[in-house]
């Protein structure tokens, strides 16, 4: 692909999704867009680019954006955040929310569903603690394809082997042909919705806990800061934010501060996190 076409497509991608593509990733653009070109009946990428330049058809732009997302995910990714959620964050929020017995959790880049479903399984495992509570888990992503996969709750052997303890697999999944389907009760705990992190978060309501993991790494500084600021605006001052292992708020926003002793967890600045120090 020539430089002009690369720059043209990466500018569109950045504007639509925040995703930044550096020139050394040009090969990625080519390999991921070939299937899109084929789907739309183009002979190759030059024809695809020509069509985008001429008409900017929305369906083609959507497919280009989705094709450029990286959707890697796994159950209980990095484990530690989920352990902290189970042993510290949820018990303390349960005390704090005892009056209205409602908890809202947002998985903000949910991909194929492993993250929100891990949260669902974890909450189910807490048993009586949340009996009678209104627990809402909202899972959003920019990719409609990924959300459809997530809704189906159907995973390959490879996917269930990554991160899921065997006892959890046996307890919550049923083998269907060569795949594994997650239990309907856990699936029903999660609501999926298409949502672009560049958009206004106010439409989603308030969240006590937000998982926004392994997506900010693909954005530039300004986008990271804008996304985090918008997320902070939908959290109460005792809310807890989880970021991925390679992500931070430091030097990006002053709306959040790291929670001492708990890597990957952040509190609203000046707030009172639902988590005492380690
Ligand atoms: C690497 S996955 C992370 C999945 C999960 N959070 C985890 O940590 O395992 C990144 C996800 O971010 C989504 N994404 C990228 N840009 C987005 C945007 N602007 N708005 C919402 N989701 C976006 C992608 O579609 C992809 O599914």
Q: How many independent structural domains?
A: 2
Strand order of the largest sheet: 6-2-1-7-8-10-9
CA distance, first residue to last residue: 51 Å
Low-confidence stretches: none
Q: What is the C-level CATH assignment of the largest domain?
A: Alpha Beta
Total helices: the number is 11
**CATH topology label of the largest domain:** Rossmann fold
Instruction: Tally the beta strands.
Output: 10
Written as H for each helix and E for each strand, in order along the chain, the element string is HHHHHEHEHEHHEEHEEHEEE
Itemize the secondary structure elements and their pairings.
Elements: H1 3-17, H2 26-39, H3 45-55, H4 58-67, H5 80-96, E1 102-107, H6 114-125, E2 134-141, H7 144-152, E3 154-156, H8 157-161, H9 166-172, E4 173-176, E5 179-182, H10 184-187, E6 190-194, E7 209-212, H11 221-232, E8 240-243, E9 256-258, E10 265-268
Parallel strand pairs: 1-2, 1-7, 2-6, 7-8
Antiparallel strand pairs: 3-5, 4-5, 8-10, 9-10
The structure holds S-adenosylmethionine.
The site of S-adenosylmethionine has 23 residues, from loops.
What is the gist of this entry?
The protein has 278 residues and is an alpha/beta fold. 42% of the residues lie in helices and 16% in strands.
Report on this structure.
The chain has 278 residues and is of the alpha/beta class. The protein has 2 domains: 3-67, Chemotaxis Receptor Methyltransferase Cher, domain 1, CATH 1.10.155; 80-268, Rossmann fold (3-Layer(aba) Sandwich). The chain has helices at residues 3-17, 26-39, 45-55, 58-67, 80-96, 114-125, 144-152, 157-161, 166-172, 184-187, 221-232, and strands at residues 102-107, 134-141, 154-156, 173-176, 179-182, 190-194, 209-212, 240-243, 256-258, 265-268. Strands 6-2-1-7-8-10-9 form a 7-stranded mixed β-sheet. A 3-stranded antiparallel β-sheet has the order 3-5-4. Helix 11 links the parallel strand 7 (209-212) and strand 8 (240-243). The model has no long low-confidence stretch (mean pLDDT 95). The protein binds S-adenosylmethionine. The site of S-adenosylmethionine has 23 residues, from loops. Residues 17-19, 69-73, 77, 109, 111, 115, 141-143, 146, 196-198, 213-215, 244 line the site of S-adenosylmethionine (SAM).
